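hi support,

uploading two proteins for the ticket. first:
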Amino acid sequence: MSWKAAFRRFREADPERLHFAAHSHHYWPDVAFEAQRRCWEDAARLADRKWERIFGEVIPRAQAGIAGILKLSDPSTIAFGPNTHGFLLRLLSCLPQERAVRVLTSDGEFHSFERQLRRLEESGRAEVTRVPTEPFDSFTVRFRQAAAEGGRDLIYLSQVFYNSGYAVPDLPGIVAAVPEPEALVVIDGYHGFLARPTDLSAVEDRAFYMSGGYKYAMAGEGACFLHCPPGLAARPPDTGWFAAFGALTAKAQGEVPYGADGSRFLGATFDPVGIYRQTAVLDWLAAEGITAAAIHDHARALQEAFVAVLPRLGIPGLSAAALVVPLEETNRGNFLTFRTPQAGGLYEALLARNVITDHRGDRLRFGFGIYQDHKDVAALAERLHGLERPAFV
């Protein structure tokens, strides 16, 4: 199956580029271009009244699309923001301020969260327990046991680890193991949303879930979202004026008002163009019948085709044995991570051949998405052919 025709604008912008960094900036389908133009036209046509359309039509459509993908019963629990870091700060503001907050997480979390957490540790405002992600086959049991010990204010865990591709199984079991009802449980779904089938119905009343359009949702920047369980963290101290958007015309009296739904986690004025793009992409996926399961199956098929050609290429560091998460592991996201001392050199050598990948330290990542097909994998193998060791050492 090939959906490449839907990505004509990105492909024609650089026809010779092979983009295999499909774990970060995915190509956008052409419908996103039309959506971006529609956002501008709405601003020109409606001026100040554009916000009525944004909050009355655009955002509800995006919420409904995301809720359907995640099997959420109430789309209004979803809040949008320009990035997930803003949501993280609002969540942190809900934790105790009079003492160091107690956090349980893994040692495989993305830079944004990990940097903020380390800074809180430096200032004595956080006490952190990090459960090692490896060995992967025992991670879920080890993390669930740590969660069951209790005594934490925040439990934060990725659905799919960014630096390996390992997908955590039994998230509902981990969430259920947390004994304190007031503890905040946050699932970072940035490498899981629209990369793997995700059913949050069992934990929608207990766990926050954050993701965005920059990666697999193919909508670019500025379209991040947070699912907010009803009643939890009802009045974030870090708050923007959009958190009470529906009450702006009323005279302020008593406590600072908040929406009862996901809007309580909104910030302040934002550029809505990313949400326009996201809505268009979700509408296109629905119209084409492209599900998260179909996207994941497509990516896995391309992964298998890629690994199958590696033995005949004979490139040091690129082999099935060098995979951080083995190909036969079903708990895997839509990218492959190779552990090799030559990761940086390989990345540069591939970039010189107009092949876009990604590396972090000794880990080289190849991503796979629906703007690629088997012809792209064959083209990738052709450019890898003859890549001599001195070219990347």
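and the second one:
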Amino acid sequence: MDRPAWTTPTIEALNDYRMLPYRGSDTSYVNLFQLRHKYKLEIASHDGVLFRYYHGKNANRQGYGFPLSSDRFDADRIFQMIKNDAKDRGGIRFCLCDEMQKEVISKYFDIDWRTEEGDNDYIYESEKWLTFSGRKYHHLKYKLNHFNRTYDDAEYFPIDSDERLADALRVSEVWQHEHTDKEMPDEDLDLEQSCITEVSKHWHELGMTGGVMYVGGSPVAMTMASFLSNDSVDFHFDKAIGEFAAAGATVVSRRSFVANGIAKGRQFFNLEEDMNIPGLRQSKETYRPMCKLKKYYGEAAVTSR
């Protein structure tokens, strides 16, 4: 019986799925690698198709992800493989599926689809961040100008050396200390920091990119990102610290990411989800997303349509 051969995600196992035609943050090979422990993630590769199975704590992170491929695949065969595999899992569940993926899956299974606002990916047009022009970006333009007047010695550099990477890590460590006992549970802060550390350890293997901003020679903001597709960049970690954060360092850092060519011409930025954290949601709304990529999850009986 044709079934996926499951294994734990490794960089080597994900190499063939580095640049897929999707914009969802769940399709990022970097996220599949760094979040493998959090979700006890299983993957399987078959004829150029990547299967995923999530074992998260909550229903919106439990079940099969949409099969990923750089080309069109034989959907009848692939979903039959999922149906066969699901017999040993006590039913069929899907998670992290966008609208189009949901429609495809619904041709094969009767799914009771649900969605949570905190799962939506925020997608932006990168060129808008270069100028912040127009009334709806007035607040961001004000912060940009205010920061530049206040800290006229601010500099931004790509993460292109071990020294720059160490400075980015320093920013993340200070940020974590500043946010202890705040909106994010300490457990989540620790998990995020461990992911940042691991991504940094495998920076070159994962093909990461990013930048660090300095004021007076000290690092005050950083971005760690990856190339999600031929037209999109995924922002994995984006931090600013202390008085510099309050003064608008994040705005300047994100604008500098575009201005320094780090995006390599990608048209769209994915700032991922807000996880129902009010402050994070407000911040991401401020940057005026082009759209929000809604994610769905649900379960069904093993029997297909």
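thanks. also noticed: The two ends are 20 Å apart (CA to CA).
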